Structures
1.
Amino acid sequence: MTSTQNSSRRRSEDLRPFVAPSELADDLQAVLVDLVELHLQAKQAHWNVIGPGFRSMHLSLDELVDTAREASDTIAERMRALQTVPDGRSDTVTATTSLPAYPSGTRQKSETVELMTARITAAVDTMRGVHDRVDAADPATSDLLHAIIDDLEKRAWMIAAEQSPTP
């Protein structure tokens, strides 16, 4: 091997992992708390939906719970990979989520559809709002946002399709 071939090798001590800049960490934290809150609100809706069409809505909400929970785990693990610390504690989620609070008590299926599609929209709006900054800082992370947005918008469509058509 010639000395020219060796000159392109990096030294181990010069290699450092990518560390998320503070704005990227803040943007991912905002996404994380909305996904955790979406998961919790979908479970609340799942437990308390009543009336005609209960069974299909109950099952659709369980699918949303799984989607939001998996997405929050994906974002939190990405944050750790980027050397930042996710905060999914209940007090942090409550204080910082952008999702409207979910009402207490039971809800008819039609109201549940409206409430949950609005909350999915809010979570997606957060992701779309931070997307360009995330993409500029770390395109690989923006790819994760794309996949989550796609999943959530599909869930919103499927939940909205549970609504009876208007005459």
Note: The CA atoms of residues 25 and 84 lie 6 Å apart.
2.
Amino acid sequence: MFTCDTGGELNKVAHFYSYESMAHREEVRSAAARNQAWSAYVDIGRKFMVKQESRIMLENQVIYSATGAPGAASFAPPSGGDGPGLYEWRQYQLSPGYGSVPKLLKAFEEGLPDKIAADPEGRLVALAHSDVGILNNVMELWRYPSAAACIRARQAARQVPKWRETIAAVTPGVQTFTTSFMVPCPFSPWQ
């Protein structure tokens, strides 16, 4: 669970959940509905809610294989006292149609390893595309020790020829691109 520090809607809370399957999702949600503490939390939270959005995202294992990233379910923030860190949530809204997501993912499969090699501080947490909700949406979630480290990573990535080629290849199919700095809530396991 995160709050938005900057780069988008402020006073927003984002929850990320990982499920093994749709059946597992239903099982967890059913158990939560029976949990009195969760029901009380939801009832209190509704008073403050202006808008709620939900989508189901599918992680891309090919990207994880190419980059060595563990994926969201296996991610653990580094130990060593760099604090809660900062997460950069990058979202791409792609053109309608069946080909835009596969094209972006293929380009990322080829370009992300070089981008990651140029960035010793950042860690790819998740890369996923929407399956339910706003379609043709791709998200990346990165962890950095600080906002300054995120900016250094961006500057380094701009100098990587393969990453520049990747961005040039996918940009024509991107309708919008947003990036937000997210701070993990004090009780988040991703502190």
Note: The longest strand covers residues 174-184.
